[in-house]
Design a protein that fits this description.
By secondary structure, this protein is mainly beta. The protein has a domain of 92 residues: Immunoglobulin-like, CATH 2.60.40.10. 5% of the residues lie in helices and 44% in strands. It is built from 3 helices and 36 strands. The strands form 7 sheets. Strands 1, 2, 3, 4, 5, 6 and 36 form a 7-stranded mixed β-sheet that branches. It has a 5-stranded antiparallel β-sheet with strand order 7-33-32-31-30, with no helix packed on it. The longest helix has 17 residues. It is globular. The protein starts with a helix and ends in a 7-residue tail after the last strand.
């Protein structure tokens, strides 16, 4: 009886082992082909299609004669293949080599294709790379959106451009829209999240296909409301402005506004005891909402901070143009919050409140104030106990942007540096001003703030961006990506804080986390021509993992 059993076992083993000895390479049942991205808004992308005689993955190697990269197809092995490839350079012929690999590791003979990209549009911003030390840089693609800004005018609302550049500053991806694009935030699923106007938000894939839209239902400007398209998800709030992010929960976090009529409001910030009159004051609101548009949390800053405390710009009328048009007497931009960040370590929101010269932390659960970072002038009780004390000669930041908590628990922000005073103290002139990137250690229990690191300002490289801008801590190198994106030059070519009248230019730099910091990458957006009537600005920038050497993305069905 043992021999028949042995024979059966041997036969079964031979059958089982036969799958392990597969040496037959997959073949292309349908020849590979490459076609332009069907969405012309993202022209530096292509779709590679093929069919194989057995389940396999595609390997796609691309070369433009100078640079070569490998895009490995994502997902399970299949016999029908349709892959999107990113990272093409503009105005070049590319060789696209496609091979198939089966589960046993057998690789097909390559199929070689050619793909030619169009040149960059004629109204593309001038990009000048001043420094690139790729070996010391964080790997990846620098992603940012651009504002086209004619001198003496507002930025062009109908010029929408987001782009990505490699370590050499060469454009490897761009999306062209019909409206000014807010800061594009990369999402875990590979898509981008950004704002349009001050009443809409968009999730888009890297091929330019819209995945989801949201809009603020109570926006007071009828012209903005007309731009809401069918299928957009309603959120019951006045506006979306400055910042939108997706939380780990999947909810979205943004800033909104409301207008409050306040009697007896100060009419002149430089005279605290002077004339008072009724005023339409804009309040900022932290809004957290679900992907279906339902509001989860909202906290009004005027319910947390002193609505009668005014910085030098708190009576400005920014919102007259942005949303609340035609209001008798105009509006007052009391706070001008410009960033909101969720800190999971203590379930709180961190808000940069530019016109209050403060960064504040607020409990997500209760809406109660946790602490205030900034100049102590003009704070009264009951807010005084929440003020952080500066340690070791810390110089307060002013007119800040982009406050967030780093993975090491420190506070990172862009100190724009406008004015460097609260009323009635003397303002610092624009020509003497400077910006800084600051990293601070906050002790919430002891109510103290200590400077850990800085870039810019006295003693280091002097630069000045009186508006927008940010800094990001990069995860692999520990370098900092700095968006010095709102430079303004007066008619003499000197640094200025007159945002409305000057010539605009932008800089993106990567610096080492050393003292002093050392630049390893520097890019300018400016023609450098003295009489150029058009400038450029960059709100923020992000470093994406390198998609040319990463995965190829499968286009959404039907897109």
């Amino acid at each position: 009886m043992t021999r028949p059993c042995f024979a059966l076992i041997s036969a079964a083993l031979a059958i089982a082992l036969s799958g392990c000895s597969d040496t037959s390479a997959p073949k292309f049942a349908t020849a590979a082909s490459v076609a332009p991205n069907p969405n012309p808004a993202v022209p530096l992308a292509a779709i590679v299609s093929a069919a194989t005689d057995e389940p396999a993955e595609l390997a796609i190697k691309v070369s433009d004669g100078e640079t070569e990269w490998l895009a490995l197809a994502a997902g399970e092995p299949a016999t029908e293949h349709k892959r999107a490839v990113l990272g093409f350079r503009a105005g070049r012929k590319h060789r696209v080599e496609v091979t198939a690999r089966d589960a046993a590791g057998n690789i097909s003979a390559p199929q070689t294709l050619e793909f030619e990209t169009p040149p960059l549009p004629g109204d593309f911003p001038p990009i000048k790379v001043l420094l690139s030390n790729a070996e010391r840089m964080e790997p990846g693609i620098t992603l940012f959106s651009v504002m086209k800004w004619p001198d003496g005018k507002a930025p062009q609302e109908d010029y929408g451009l987001a782009l990505g550049v490699d370590a050499r500053g060469e454009v490897v991806w761009f999306y062209r829209g019909e409206e000014l694009i807010g800061d594009p935030q990369p999402l875990p699923n590979g898509n981008l999240l950004y704002m349009v106007g001050r009443n809409r938000a968009v999730e888009m894939d890297m091929l330019g296909n819209i995945v989801s839209r949201w809009h603020a239902t109570q926006h007071p400007n009828p012209e903005a409301v007309k731009k809401v398209v069918e299928g957009s998800i309603p959120v019951v709030t006045d506006t979306f402005h400055h910042d939108i992010t997706k939380l780990p929960s999947g909810n979205l976090l943004t800033l909104s506004t409301e207008m409050r009529r306040i009697d007896g409001y100060p009419a002149d910030v430089s005279k605290p005891g002077g004339a008072k009159a009724p005023a339409n004051v804009i309040d900022d609101i932290i809004v957290e909402f679900t992907p279906d548009g339902s509001i989860v949390k909202q906290w009004r800053l005027m319910d947390v901070l002193d609505p009668h405390r005014l910085g030098y710009d708190s009576l400005g009328r920014t919102w007259d143009n942005w949303a609340y048009k035609g209001i008798e007497g105009g509006t007052r931009d009391w706070a001008h919050s410009n960033s909101v960040f969720y800190d999971a370590s203590d379930d709180s929101y961190l808000v940069s409140v530019r016109h209050q010269e403060a960064v504040v932390k607020i409990s997500r659960e209760t809406g109660k104030l946790l602490w205030i970072l900034g100049d102590h002038d003009l704070w009264k009780d009951p807010w005084k106990p929440y003020l952080l004390e500066p340690l070791e000669g810390l110089q307060w930041p002013y007119h800040t942007h982009a406050a967030r908590i780093t993975p090491r628990g420190t506070l990172l922000l862009f100190d724009n540096g406008n004015l460097r005073a609260l009323p009635p103290k003397a303002k610092m002139p624009g020509r003497d001003s400077y910006s800084r990137v600051l990293e601070l250690a906050i002790d919430a229990k002891a109510k103290t703030a200590r400077q850990v690191w800085k870039y810019g300002g006295p003693g280091d490289e002097i630069f000045f961006s009186p508006f927008i801008s940010e800094a990001d801590l990069l995860p692999n190198t520990g370098n900092l990506l700095v968006t010095d994106g709102g430079r303004v030059l007066d008619k003499d070519g000197c640094l200025s804080d007159d945002i409305a009248k000057g010539h605009h230019a932008a800089r993106i730099a990567e610096v080492t986390y050393t003292s002093p910091p050392e630049k390893v990458f520097e890019l300018m957006l400016d023609s450098g021509e003295k009489n150029d009537p058009v400038g450029w600005a960059v709100y923020r920038s992000e470093r994406l993992p390198a998609f040319p050497a990463g995965t190829a993305h499968t286009p959404p069905a039907g897109k």
